[in-house]
Design a protein that fits this description.
346 residues; alpha/beta; Rossmann fold; 8-stranded mixed β-sheet; 3-stranded antiparallel β-sheet
Length: 346
């Protein structure tokens, strides 16, 4: 009764997506549009799966812990910046112990016309598969309501940092996993993200490169080999895994950069388009600190990667002469034809 009352009050106060019977999700007047900065959209109007009474949520600055009611916090492009229709579901890090939303990710992507949805997901109090369920529900919810939100349902990506990368990459590899379904109508919506951006990433749950603390928080003290393999992202890559942009540093002593190397190798074996950027300096999570030199430039390179793939439009400030993959392919084809048919000698 207490659980039902709590969820009901949240639904009334914050405006949730309603799902009726087995019908596909329909536009809901309870989610106010257009989206506004700081707007909160809880994920589970029908009740949080596996809900536990773990006491009140704790908030310290930008850090949230003891989360039992996962939700999205919305950051649309600022006034005067046209939306591109692209959305990023941002999974902040925190070792599956808490969720730290600091770092200003929305400040990087909002000026590009990208809407950022910051995900507050369940952590160690619930363990697996709760974070997977939360991120897949987030993708499904945003995609199901893309028309209301002014978004392109085929331009919905995920971004993660540290353990948040494990959450984001789980969406990119385990999007069809039965553990990510709860029997709700929204399960019928495709949960595969269209791209992944993974920074300073926790990815493996296995030795020798897995994060022991993140594994303990997600899988408990004594996970089985099968559990560790299932949640090791590099083992779940297929040719349908979405394109990826990966960043790490040699200076990261918290999470081994071999996480990114293992994932890159798996993506390459499966012919998944991927950019990998490794830098010599930069501590864990220091990706936008100008004191670490070129490491701080990854957001600009990521912007160009998104532009090349069509998720943000061409720009006169672009570093690229050829700004889209379509144009690059056309030029390559012309050069191949020219090489095969050289002009006749006089």
């Amino acid at each position: 009764m207490k659980q039902a009352l709590l969820v009901g009050l949240l639904a009334f106060a914050l405006g949730l997506v309603r799902v009726r019977g087995a019908d596909a999700p329909t536009p809901s007047p309870l989610i106010p549009t257009p989206l506004v900065t700081g707007q909160v959209i809880p994920l589970w109007p029908e009740g949080v799966p596996g809900w536990k009474d773990i006491g009140p949520e704790k908030v310290s600055g930008t850090t949230y812990s003891n989360i039992s009611n996962p939700r999205l916090i919305v950051y649309p492009p600022p006034p005067g910046t046209p939306s591109t229709g692209t959305a990023i579901i941002y999974c902040p890090g925190g070792g599956y112990i808490h969720v730290n939303t600091g770092g200003g990710i929305q400040g990087t992507f909002n000026p590009l016309g990208v809407t950022v949805f910051t995900l507050l997901y369940r952590c160690r109090e619930f363990g697996a598969p709760a974070p997977l369920q939360d991120v897949l529900r987030a993708v499904r919810l945003v995609r199901a309501h893309a028309a209301e939100f002014g978004l392109n349902p085929a331009h919905i990506g995920v971004l993660g940092g540290s353990a948040g990368s494990h959450v984001a990459a789980s969406a990119g590899t385990l999007y069809d996993d039965p553990l990510g379904r709860t029997g709700a109508s929204l399960d019928r919506i495709d949960a595969r993200p269209d791209f992944m951006i993974l920074i300073f990433s926790v990815l493996s749950m296995e030795e020798p490169n897995g994060s022991v603390s993140a594994r303990r928080a997600l899988l408990g003290e004594h996970p089985t080999p099968e559990q560790m393999e299932h949640y090791s992202i590099e083992r779940q890559v297929t040719p349908r895994t979405p394109p990826a942009f990966l960043v790490h540093t040699q200076g990261d002593t918290t999470v081994k950069l071999e996480n990114e190397l293992q994932l890159y190798a798996a993506l390459r074996r499966n012919n998944v388009p991927t950019e990998l950027h490794l830098y010599p300096v930069g501590t864990h999570g220091s990706g936008q600190d100008p004191n670490f030199g070129p490491t701080a430039l990854w957001p600009r390179l990521c912007e160009e990667w998104m532009r090349f793939n069509g998720w943000v439009p061409p720009s006169p400030t672009s570093l690229m002469k050829v700004q889209t993959a379509t144009e690059a392919a056309a030029r390559s084809a012309r050069r191949a034809r020219d090489a095969a048919n050289p002009p006749a000698a006089d």
